[in-house]
Each structure stands twice: as structure tokens, then as C-alpha cells.
Amino acid sequence: KGEREEVIIEKLKSQYKKINVNKIKNFDDFPLSKATIKGLTDSGYTVPTDIQRQSLGLSLRGQDILGAAKTGSGKTLAFLIPVLEILYCKQWTRLDGTGALIITPTRELAYQIFETLRKVGVHHDFSAGLIIGGKDLKFEKSRMDQVNIIICTPGRLLQHMDENPLFDCRNLQVLVLDEADRILDLGFQQTMNNIIQNIPKERQTLLFSATQTKSVQDLARLSLKDPMYVSVHEHA
Ligand code: ADP
Ligand code: MG
């Protein structure tokens, strides 16, 4: 099984550079794993939204992304799909630990991302966990080793980094900063700086925001490497 999987993965990756945004109609026009396509189809997602179409090729190729698109434009799948594909292509297993960290401003948003990931990622074999507070810290702590995809709020994440010996993101491949403008509006600037200092430098970072404020630009400068700027405008 392992060898065949490697052939499939190499074939997918070889198609990344040929992605032509103008020719993409449906998700299955992108070179995505069967598991992701099936998860998307099962969940009723067939046609990518603008921000998904514009950013997916770049994020699959390993680029850092600074994505701007208004609320409701589908930013969640614009980062969940690459997270799944990156871990899939690296043949990530539960033993590899935390490979993706998704930071979002509020518990409610974290739950929503978790639910979407559960649906779209159901045919993959990755574990996912929420670090959002509200629950007993001890409970969260005991479960945080070996979680492949962590979805979290900034304050609670930093608390785990400081206090939880089981928390280990040395293998981290992808960092997602979701709704970055709101994270900063809530006063998490310093917390974000501390988090970014605590995670591996060699990683891909996807930053999405509804608006591009000065403080979002500052966070982008701190967290992204040669980012591709993807902005989806409303048509007037
Ligand atoms: P944003 O984060 O940009 O505010 P969301 O990712 O929360 O937007 O998506 C907004 C809504 O659009 C959700 O209900 C989601 O299920 C739906 N949605 C996202 N992508 C698609 C798609 N490709 N096709 C149909 N509906 C989608
Ligand atoms: Mg969102």
C-alpha cells in the first residue's frame, strides 16, 4: 500500500506547477487527494469560491499566503484543504505529532473550523483537537500529545506552550492564522508574537483576514516569508 501511495503523491505534486486558475471550475480540477475530494463532495462542496480558487494553487506549491477576503467568502476551506493535502503528501501519521496549528480568535470560530474539518477530513486518518479553554486545562493537557491538527485560540495556546510538557510542535509544518484582523482587535498582538517565537521557523504559513489593517500587515511581516498576496475584491 505504502509504495502505491507514494506514486500517487508524486503524481499529484508534479501537477501543482501546472495549475491554471482560469481553467478551474470544480474542486476536482485541482490535483487533490481522493480523500479530500470525497470529503468535499460528501459535504456538498463542488465549486470553489474565489478566495479558494485564487489561493489553493499557491498554498499547494508551498507558498506563504496573505489572503484577504470578506466574511462569508469561504476562507475556512482555503486553509483546511491545503492543511489536509500537506499532511497527506508527507504521509503524516499519528506518531508524527502536531503537523498543523490553526489559530482563530474565538471559541465559536474554533468549533466551526473543527466541525468543517471533521466533515471534509473524514476520509483522512489525522487526529484533530481543540485548545480553546472553557474545558479543564488538565483534560486538554493530557490529550494534546500526538494530535496532528490543533485548532486553538491564542491565549489558551500560549498557556499550553508555557505550562504543558506534553505540548510539542517541533514537527510543525503549517501555521494558519485565521481571521487575523479579529485576533488583533481582541488584543492578542503580544500573545501572537510570543507564539510565533515558540514555533519552528521552517514552516508554511497561511494568514487570512477579512480586512488588511496596519496591525495585520505587522503580523504578516512577523509571520510570513515572501508571501503571495491574494485579495478577492467585491465586484461593484
Ligand atoms: P469566511 O471564513 O470567509 O467568513 P467560511 O469559510 O466560514 O467564510 O464560509 C462561509 C460559508 O460558505 C460557510 O457556510 C461554508 O460552508 C460556505 N462555503 C465555503 N466554501 C464553499 C464552497 N466552495 N461551496 C459552497 N459553500 C461554501
Ligand atoms: Mg472565517
Protein model, in words:
Helix 4 packs across helix 5 (107-120). The protein has helices spanning 2-16, 34-42, 50-60, 75-89, 107-120, 137-143, 154-163, 180-185, 189-197, 214-223, and strands at 65-68, 100-103, 128-131, 149-152, 174-177, 204-209, 228-231. The mean pLDDT is 94. With 236 residues, the chain is of the alpha/beta class. Helices cover 45% and strands 13% of the residues. It has a seven-stranded parallel sheet with strand order 3-4-2-5-6-1-7, sandwiched between helices. The chain contains ten helices and seven strands. Helix 6 (137-143) links the parallel strand 3 and strand 4. The longest helix is centred in the first third of the chain and has 15 residues, at 2-16. Adenosine-5'-diphosphate (ADP) binds next to helix 4.
Uncertain runs: none
- What is the alpha-carbon Rg in Å? 17 Å
The number of helical elements comes to 10
Helix content: 40-55%
N to C succession of SSEs? HHHEHEHEHEHEHHEHE
Average residue pLDDT: 94
Distance linking N and C termini: 51 Å
How many DSSP-defined strands? 7
Structure ligands:
adenosine-5'-diphosphate, magnesium ion
Biggest sheet, spatial arrangement of strands? 3-4-2-5-6-1-7
β-strand amount? 5-15%
Could you describe the largest sheet, including whether it forms a barrel? 7 strands, parallel
Shape: globular
Helix/strand structural class: alpha/beta
